Amino acid sequence: MVTGAKLVEEAENLLSAKGCATIYVDGYAGPEALRDAARTHCVDAILVRQGKIDRSVIEASDRLKVIAKHGSGVDNIDLAAAGDRSIPVLRALSANAQSVAELALTLTLSLLKDVTVLDRAVKSGSWPKTSYVGRDIAGTSFGVIGYGDIGRRAASLARALGMSALAFDPGAAAADDGIERVETLDALLERADVISLHCPLTERTRDLIGARELTLMGPASFLVNTARGGLIDETALQHALANGHIAGAALDSFSQEPPAPDHHLFGLDNLIATPHVGGASRSALRNMAVQSATNILTFLEHGTFDSAAQAKPSLAGMSINA
Protein backbone atom coordinates (compact mmCIF):
# COMPACT_ATOMS: atom_id res chain seq x y z
CA MET A 1 0.00 0.00 0.00
CA VAL A 2 1.33 3.40 -1.01
CA THR A 3 -0.14 6.37 0.85
CA GLY A 4 -0.03 9.22 -1.62
CA ALA A 5 0.76 9.95 -5.24
CA LYS A 6 1.99 7.47 -7.82
CA LEU A 7 5.60 6.33 -7.49
CA VAL A 8 8.12 6.94 -10.23
CA GLU A 9 8.08 4.28 -12.93
CA GLU A 10 11.44 2.80 -11.91
CA ALA A 11 10.17 2.03 -8.41
CA GLU A 12 6.91 0.60 -9.72
CA ASN A 13 8.87 -1.66 -12.05
CA LEU A 14 11.03 -2.91 -9.18
CA LEU A 15 7.94 -3.89 -7.23
CA SER A 16 6.04 -5.45 -10.13
CA ALA A 17 9.10 -7.46 -11.22
CA LYS A 18 8.96 -9.20 -7.83
CA GLY A 19 5.24 -9.88 -8.14
CA CYS A 20 4.10 -7.13 -5.79
CA ALA A 21 0.62 -5.72 -6.35
CA THR A 22 0.59 -2.02 -5.44
CA ILE A 23 -2.51 -0.18 -4.24
CA TYR A 24 -2.66 3.60 -3.85
CA VAL A 25 -4.60 5.37 -1.12
CA ASP A 26 -4.93 9.13 -0.63
CA GLY A 27 -2.54 9.89 2.21
CA TYR A 28 -4.64 12.82 3.35
CA ALA A 29 -7.86 10.77 3.53
CA GLY A 30 -7.31 10.12 7.25
CA PRO A 31 -6.28 7.11 9.35
CA GLU A 32 -9.70 5.48 9.03
CA ALA A 33 -9.45 5.24 5.23
CA LEU A 34 -5.86 4.01 5.46
CA ARG A 35 -6.85 1.43 8.06
CA ASP A 36 -9.74 0.15 5.94
CA ALA A 37 -7.52 -0.17 2.86
CA ALA A 38 -4.80 -2.01 4.78
CA ARG A 39 -7.37 -4.43 6.21
CA THR A 40 -9.25 -4.97 2.95
CA HIS A 41 -6.11 -5.74 0.96
CA CYS A 42 -4.24 -7.55 3.78
CA VAL A 43 -1.14 -5.58 2.93
CA ASP A 44 2.37 -6.95 3.52
CA ALA A 45 4.05 -3.54 3.39
CA ILE A 46 3.20 0.15 3.60
CA LEU A 47 5.17 2.76 1.67
CA VAL A 48 4.41 6.07 3.35
CA ARG A 49 4.37 9.24 1.26
CA GLN A 50 1.74 11.24 3.15
CA GLY A 51 -0.75 10.68 5.93
CA LYS A 52 -0.83 9.52 9.53
CA ILE A 53 0.12 5.89 10.08
CA ASP A 54 -1.24 5.35 13.57
CA ARG A 55 -1.69 2.18 15.62
CA SER A 56 -5.03 1.39 13.99
CA VAL A 57 -3.44 1.37 10.52
CA ILE A 58 -0.47 -0.71 11.66
CA GLU A 59 -2.71 -3.28 13.35
CA ALA A 60 -5.21 -3.46 10.46
CA SER A 61 -3.38 -6.18 8.50
CA ASP A 62 -2.11 -9.36 10.16
CA ARG A 63 0.30 -9.75 7.24
CA LEU A 64 2.04 -6.41 7.63
CA LYS A 65 5.79 -7.00 7.86
CA VAL A 66 7.54 -3.73 6.99
CA ILE A 67 6.92 0.02 6.69
CA ALA A 68 9.08 2.22 4.46
CA LYS A 69 9.10 6.01 4.49
CA HIS A 70 9.36 7.89 1.19
CA GLY A 71 11.80 10.30 2.86
CA SER A 72 13.49 10.57 6.25
CA GLY A 73 10.94 12.14 8.63
CA VAL A 74 8.88 9.57 10.54
CA ASP A 75 6.84 11.77 12.90
CA ASN A 76 3.68 10.64 11.05
CA ILE A 77 4.32 6.97 11.88
CA ASP A 78 3.58 5.39 15.27
CA LEU A 79 7.00 3.86 15.92
CA ALA A 80 5.92 2.35 19.23
CA ALA A 81 3.01 0.53 17.59
CA ALA A 82 5.31 -0.79 14.86
CA GLY A 83 7.83 -1.88 17.49
CA ASP A 84 5.15 -3.77 19.42
CA ARG A 85 4.70 -5.95 16.34
CA SER A 86 8.44 -6.09 15.50
CA ILE A 87 7.75 -4.28 12.23
CA PRO A 88 10.79 -2.27 11.08
CA VAL A 89 10.22 1.31 9.90
CA LEU A 90 12.84 2.09 7.26
CA ARG A 91 13.77 5.57 6.03
CA ALA A 92 15.12 6.66 2.64
CA LEU A 93 18.29 8.16 4.03
CA SER A 94 19.71 11.25 2.28
CA ALA A 95 17.52 10.57 -0.75
CA ASN A 96 16.09 14.11 -0.78
CA ALA A 97 18.80 15.93 1.17
CA GLN A 98 20.15 18.02 -1.70
CA SER A 99 16.70 18.98 -2.92
CA VAL A 100 15.56 20.15 0.52
CA ALA A 101 18.79 22.06 1.11
CA GLU A 102 18.40 23.80 -2.24
CA LEU A 103 14.85 24.90 -1.41
CA ALA A 104 16.04 26.23 1.97
CA LEU A 105 18.56 28.42 0.16
CA THR A 106 16.04 29.42 -2.53
CA LEU A 107 13.61 30.59 0.14
CA THR A 108 16.43 32.36 1.99
CA LEU A 109 17.42 34.30 -1.11
CA SER A 110 13.80 35.16 -1.88
CA LEU A 111 13.42 36.62 1.61
CA LEU A 112 16.72 38.50 1.60
CA LYS A 113 16.05 40.00 -1.84
CA ASP A 114 12.35 40.71 -1.21
CA VAL A 115 11.44 38.77 -4.36
CA THR A 116 7.79 38.12 -3.49
CA VAL A 117 7.26 41.59 -2.02
CA LEU A 118 8.61 43.29 -5.15
CA ASP A 119 6.69 40.90 -7.39
CA ARG A 120 3.40 41.84 -5.74
CA ALA A 121 4.25 45.55 -5.87
CA VAL A 122 5.01 45.55 -9.60
CA LYS A 123 1.96 43.45 -10.47
CA SER A 124 -0.27 45.79 -8.48
CA GLY A 125 0.91 48.78 -10.53
CA SER A 126 3.68 50.11 -8.29
CA TRP A 127 7.26 50.74 -9.40
CA PRO A 128 9.37 51.07 -6.20
CA LYS A 129 12.70 51.37 -8.01
CA THR A 130 13.68 54.76 -6.56
CA SER A 131 12.69 53.93 -2.96
CA TYR A 132 13.84 50.32 -2.66
CA VAL A 133 17.07 49.50 -0.78
CA GLY A 134 18.01 45.83 -0.82
CA ARG A 135 20.22 43.56 1.26
CA ASP A 136 23.53 41.91 0.45
CA ILE A 137 23.75 38.13 0.51
CA ALA A 138 27.52 38.10 1.00
CA GLY A 139 28.30 38.69 4.64
CA THR A 140 24.87 37.60 5.87
CA SER A 141 24.97 34.93 8.60
CA PHE A 142 23.05 31.70 7.97
CA GLY A 143 22.27 29.56 11.02
CA VAL A 144 21.07 25.97 10.82
CA ILE A 145 19.28 24.16 13.62
CA GLY A 146 19.94 20.46 13.12
CA TYR A 147 23.23 19.52 11.52
CA GLY A 148 22.44 16.27 9.76
CA ASP A 149 22.85 15.65 6.04
CA ILE A 150 20.35 18.34 5.01
CA GLY A 151 21.66 20.93 7.46
CA ARG A 152 25.25 20.33 6.35
CA ARG A 153 24.34 20.74 2.68
CA ALA A 154 22.33 23.89 3.34
CA ALA A 155 25.22 25.43 5.30
CA SER A 156 27.65 24.52 2.52
CA LEU A 157 25.43 26.13 -0.12
CA ALA A 158 25.17 29.27 2.01
CA ARG A 159 28.94 29.51 2.32
CA ALA A 160 29.30 29.15 -1.45
CA LEU A 161 27.21 32.31 -1.80
CA GLY A 162 29.48 34.26 0.54
CA MET A 163 27.41 33.83 3.67
CA SER A 164 28.90 32.85 7.00
CA ALA A 165 27.39 29.65 8.41
CA LEU A 166 26.63 28.67 12.00
CA ALA A 167 25.17 25.41 13.30
CA PHE A 168 23.46 24.28 16.49
CA ASP A 169 23.02 20.58 17.15
CA PRO A 170 24.05 19.08 20.49
CA GLY A 171 24.02 15.56 19.03
CA ALA A 172 26.12 16.17 15.92
CA ALA A 173 29.73 15.04 15.79
CA ALA A 174 32.36 17.74 15.50
CA ALA A 175 34.00 18.17 12.10
CA ASP A 176 36.57 20.47 10.54
CA ASP A 177 34.28 21.71 7.76
CA GLY A 178 34.43 25.45 8.17
CA ILE A 179 31.02 25.67 9.85
CA GLU A 180 31.08 27.31 13.26
CA ARG A 181 29.34 25.27 15.97
CA VAL A 182 27.25 27.28 18.42
CA GLU A 183 26.85 25.87 21.92
CA THR A 184 23.26 26.98 22.63
CA LEU A 185 20.10 27.58 20.67
CA ASP A 186 19.78 31.06 22.15
CA ALA A 187 23.24 32.00 20.90
CA LEU A 188 22.36 30.91 17.37
CA LEU A 189 19.07 32.83 17.41
CA GLU A 190 20.82 35.98 18.59
CA ARG A 191 23.69 35.81 16.08
CA ALA A 192 22.25 34.55 12.78
CA ASP A 193 20.48 36.77 10.24
CA VAL A 194 18.67 33.74 8.82
CA ILE A 195 17.56 30.73 10.89
CA SER A 196 16.95 27.56 8.85
CA LEU A 197 15.33 24.51 10.49
CA HIS A 198 16.63 21.05 9.62
CA CYS A 199 15.61 18.84 12.53
CA PRO A 200 13.01 16.08 12.94
CA LEU A 201 9.78 16.63 14.84
CA THR A 202 9.97 14.92 18.24
CA GLU A 203 8.58 15.71 21.68
CA ARG A 204 11.86 17.52 22.33
CA THR A 205 11.64 19.72 19.24
CA ARG A 206 7.90 20.42 19.08
CA ASP A 207 7.35 24.21 19.23
CA LEU A 208 11.13 24.63 19.31
CA ILE A 209 10.62 28.13 17.93
CA GLY A 210 8.07 29.95 20.06
CA ALA A 211 7.45 33.50 21.23
CA ARG A 212 10.63 33.72 23.34
CA GLU A 213 12.84 32.37 20.57
CA LEU A 214 11.33 34.72 17.97
CA THR A 215 12.04 37.67 20.25
CA LEU A 216 15.69 36.59 20.49
CA MET A 217 16.00 36.63 16.69
CA GLY A 218 15.41 40.35 16.30
CA PRO A 219 13.55 42.58 13.81
CA ALA A 220 16.02 42.21 10.92
CA SER A 221 16.12 38.40 10.93
CA PHE A 222 14.35 35.72 8.88
CA LEU A 223 13.05 32.22 9.64
CA VAL A 224 13.04 29.38 7.09
CA ASN A 225 11.43 25.99 7.71
CA THR A 226 11.80 23.14 5.21
CA ALA A 227 11.51 20.49 7.93
CA ARG A 228 8.29 19.96 9.91
CA GLY A 229 5.56 22.47 10.71
CA GLY A 230 5.26 21.45 14.35
CA LEU A 231 8.73 22.83 15.03
CA ILE A 232 7.24 26.36 15.08
CA ASP A 233 4.47 27.80 17.24
CA GLU A 234 2.47 29.23 14.33
CA THR A 235 0.42 31.57 16.53
CA ALA A 236 3.61 33.05 17.96
CA LEU A 237 5.04 33.34 14.45
CA GLN A 238 1.96 35.19 13.20
CA HIS A 239 2.30 37.67 16.04
CA ALA A 240 6.04 38.14 15.43
CA LEU A 241 5.56 38.74 11.70
CA ALA A 242 2.59 41.06 12.13
CA ASN A 243 4.35 43.17 14.76
CA GLY A 244 7.78 43.36 13.13
CA HIS A 245 9.58 41.25 15.74
CA ILE A 246 11.22 39.45 12.80
CA ALA A 247 11.48 40.61 9.18
CA GLY A 248 9.96 37.62 7.45
CA ALA A 249 9.53 33.86 7.22
CA ALA A 250 9.31 31.14 4.58
CA LEU A 251 7.51 27.90 5.37
CA ASP A 252 7.48 24.71 3.33
CA SER A 253 5.59 22.80 6.03
CA PHE A 254 2.76 23.48 8.46
CA SER A 255 1.48 21.92 11.67
CA GLN A 256 -1.60 20.74 9.77
CA GLU A 257 -1.29 19.75 6.13
CA PRO A 258 -2.82 20.88 3.96
CA PRO A 259 -3.44 24.04 6.00
CA ALA A 260 -6.85 25.71 5.93
CA PRO A 261 -7.26 28.23 3.08
CA ASP A 262 -7.92 30.96 5.68
CA HIS A 263 -4.85 30.10 7.77
CA HIS A 264 -3.99 33.08 9.96
CA LEU A 265 -0.49 33.34 8.48
CA PHE A 266 -1.64 33.69 4.88
CA GLY A 267 -2.68 37.32 5.12
CA LEU A 268 0.86 38.45 5.87
CA ASP A 269 2.98 40.04 3.13
CA ASN A 270 6.23 39.02 4.83
CA LEU A 271 5.45 35.30 4.67
CA ILE A 272 6.36 32.95 1.80
CA ALA A 273 4.49 29.63 1.75
CA THR A 274 5.18 26.50 -0.32
CA PRO A 275 3.29 23.14 -0.14
CA HIS A 276 5.91 20.86 1.50
CA VAL A 277 7.79 20.29 -1.75
CA GLY A 278 11.38 20.45 -0.53
CA GLY A 279 11.90 16.83 -1.53
CA ALA A 280 9.91 17.00 -4.77
CA SER A 281 12.68 17.47 -7.31
CA ARG A 282 12.99 14.87 -10.07
CA SER A 283 16.12 13.32 -8.61
CA ALA A 284 14.79 13.32 -5.04
CA LEU A 285 11.48 11.71 -6.02
CA ARG A 286 13.37 9.04 -7.93
CA ASN A 287 15.82 8.41 -5.10
CA MET A 288 13.14 8.22 -2.39
CA ALA A 289 10.86 5.92 -4.35
CA VAL A 290 13.58 3.52 -5.47
CA GLN A 291 15.20 3.39 -2.03
CA SER A 292 11.83 2.83 -0.32
CA ALA A 293 10.85 0.08 -2.75
CA THR A 294 14.25 -1.55 -2.38
CA ASN A 295 13.98 -1.44 1.42
CA ILE A 296 10.62 -3.20 1.22
CA LEU A 297 11.74 -5.87 -1.23
CA THR A 298 14.95 -6.62 0.66
CA PHE A 299 13.03 -7.22 3.86
CA LEU A 300 10.23 -9.23 2.28
CA GLU A 301 12.68 -11.44 0.36
CA HIS A 302 15.51 -11.82 2.85
CA GLY A 303 14.23 -10.57 6.20
CA THR A 304 17.13 -8.12 6.41
CA PHE A 305 17.53 -4.34 6.29
CA ASP A 306 20.14 -1.64 6.69
CA SER A 307 20.17 -0.90 10.41
CA ALA A 308 21.18 2.71 9.72
CA ALA A 309 17.85 3.22 7.93
CA GLN A 310 15.73 1.97 10.81
CA ALA A 311 13.75 4.53 12.80
CA LYS A 312 13.74 3.69 16.51
CA PRO A 313 11.45 5.19 19.17
CA SER A 314 14.22 5.03 21.77
CA LEU A 315 16.36 7.44 19.72
CA ALA A 316 13.68 10.07 19.22
CA GLY A 317 14.74 13.33 20.78
CA MET A 318 18.35 12.41 21.57
CA SER A 319 19.65 14.55 18.74
CA ILE A 320 18.04 17.25 16.67
CA ASN A 321 19.78 16.45 13.37
CA ALA A 322 17.72 15.21 10.44
UniProtKB/TrEMBL annotation:
PANTHER family: D-ISOMER SPECIFIC 2-HYDROXYACID DEHYDROGENASE CATALYTIC DOMAIN-CONTAINING PROTEIN-RELATED, D-ISOMER SPECIFIC 2-HYDROXYACID DEHYDROGENASE FAMILY PROTEIN (AFU_ORTHOLOGUE AFUA_1G13630). It comes from the Bacteria. This is Hydroxyacid dehydrogenase. Keywords: NAD, Oxidoreductase. GO terms for molecular function: NAD binding; oxidoreductase activity, acting on the CH-OH group of donors, NAD or NADP as acceptor. Gene3D superfamilies: NAD(P)-binding Rossmann-like Domain. InterPro entries: D-iso_2-hydroxyacid_DH_PdxB, D-isomer_2_OHA_DH_cat_dom, D-isomer_DH_CS, D-isomer_DH_NAD-bd, NAD(P)-bd_dom_sf. It comes from Devosia elaeis.
